[in-house]
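Q: What structure does this chain adopt?
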Amino acid sequence: MEQQKREYWVDYMKAFACLSVLIFHVIYGMQNAGLEPSKPFVILKQFCDVFQIPAFMYASGYLFGKRSMGNYILFNLRKLWNLGVPYVVFSFVYYFINTHFSSSVNFSYTTQDLLLIYKNPLAQYWFIMALFILFLTIPILERIFRNEFVLLGILFLVKILNTYWYSIDGIQYDDYFAKYACYFYLGTIYARHHETFSIKKENSWNFLPIAVILVFIVVSPWVCSLGNEYDLIFNFGCILAIYLATGLMEKAENKLGNKFIKLISKYSFQIYLMHTMATAAIRILLMKMQITLDYIQFILGIAGGLGASLLAAIICEKSVVLNIIFFPEGTIKRIKAIKQD
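A:
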């Protein structure tokens, strides 16, 4: 059977999204700690805020669309296991660290918050819950709405309504679906109709994506400052920029052999799970040393968050058994294979 060629542009999309999340949380942490980062950092944070999760969702939807789901129940039981283990483990780890350093952290959590993670996630782990909700709901909606493009239109309509529609008090499921289902399913459709929608082969298509993305980078912070009523312009610009960035990365993927980006992509899930604990520790330490300059906080926060997460991920990967907290199914298979040898 012919092996499917790896699509490196997906790795680049994941790496870009991962770095955007890291940058956002470093600057966000500085602001919540009472520091006042200069305007370039604020603009950078606003841009990352627009792109980070939609890009992750788009890439996840693309990978979902590339593979056959098989049995719906078995598929989601595996997702529950593979997403649920890191979700619960790192919620406990985050809670433990948070409560032991509650006098220094920006947000403190209680035992009740920990017990309610089945509906209200702690910190950035809401993304895992949101992803699982999409794995549960999208296949069902595809059975109801047989036409993929009709379903995509409905998901965009839900996204539009979400601009003025808030989640049910005390529960976040509906809000996660409304905000991110359209990005996820856009990636799914792109995977299934790749030859139709891909623009990587267009010879005249070189300057356009770069120009549009740059315009979006410049305009997005300004639109953001106008208020929530302009969110739809924001969202449309984000979708267009992701689509054009996809084509740009596909077109240039053979030339983009950056080892650093490949490393970030490989460990993007682990970085997402662990980075805030490291960045918070560095910020607190620097503040205790009375080092509050934004560029020092930013550089050391990025370096520490990335470095500590990568180190922990590589150690767990080498130990085999510890890697179960990130990839339970794959780790168990690996352990069984080692025992058989």
